[in-house]
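Schema walkthrough. Field components (list of strings):
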Amino acid sequence: MENIMSKVAEALAERRGSDPQEITAETRFNDLALDSLDVAELVMDLEDAFNVTIDITQVDGTVGDLVRVIQEAAQ
Amino acid sequence: MNILGIGSALPEQVVSNQQLEEFLDTSDEWITSRTGITRRRVMKESELTRLALAASQRALLDAGISGQDLDMILVATTMGDYVFPSTACLIQEGLHAACPAMDLHAACAGFIYALDTADSFIKAGKAQHILVVGAEAITRLANWEDRATCVLFGDGAGAVVVGPGEGLLSVRLTARTDRDALYMLAEPGNNPFTRKPDEAPGGVRMQGQDVFRFAVSQSIEDLNQVAAQAGRTVQEMDWVLLHQANRRIIDAVRQRLKLDPARMPGNIHRTGNTSAASIPLLLDEMYRAGLLMPGQLIAMSAFGAGLVSGACVLRWGKEPPKTLTPAEDLFSPPANIKP
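Field assembly_structure (string):
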């Protein structure tokens, strides 16, 4: 779980050009100023990184929610 | 197949993002950051035939042949000025040609579909000279009340004359049907015996995120495959031309394939998405600017409604034209650089 969290934080930080440390499980996607194509690219990055399929509508709520989605998909 | 001549034409009317701000709830910043588009060319009247003919005449002049020398005219277009006759027939008349003529519809991938079709006719010995045109008046199909899609499009035409040769090193066409991702309903007409469809026609409808993901992943797969078929890697190409659909797609493909931006010219910032016309328009600008040299390898990749895609590797065979036309900023900075 921590490994997934750190990779998601890194992918998000790279997309935003920010520091991964700023992103926690409680961070809300709405607060990250991502546009719809940023979200599409994030999902593509994470699908490649974890070899899973992610429903893009699940990139909602908090970063921790997405980490759980990826963990379940990876099992 | 070799490209013997090339030409293009754009409508004169320029429509800027600021002009769109006047009637749409949008902004130049919104459009530029999401698409890389700052302006586009929009037809003032139904003039696609005129544009396609102008592009064709330039391509014939460049090839040094006349309309009578053509064995076929193939026009990749979503919809011409007329439902029928085809745009290809109207061009035939304008060129005083006497050959078979037909339109081919593969949305934004149409030009590469048409190139492969032309190559097949030439390889089969059924034709020597084929005019292949990409011509689109896509702005008249857009819903100009939908700020998410109407800002994307522009009109234009590009044409090549092809003949026998070994210039087309590899090609790949794909189709993976997904209507909902990107579609436009046909006008139902007024047939009293047929019930009107539940959904009213309303211009282009697009699931932007789905199309984006398809475009990026399909383009990468196609480019890798056509480069491998040509015995090379994408990174070894002299030029990589992507369908000018959205600067964000182009940047995402470039980053994932680790390509040098200097090998990926673009004109979307001033043309918008011209669908099947975008690749021949860009290729013509590069040729006229003196960027294309004999022996150079050019990978091209396009994708669009269907969903369909087409990609190919060409070995360029023509010397630059004697009179060069400097291309206006073919290498603008990526759109997704954030402050």
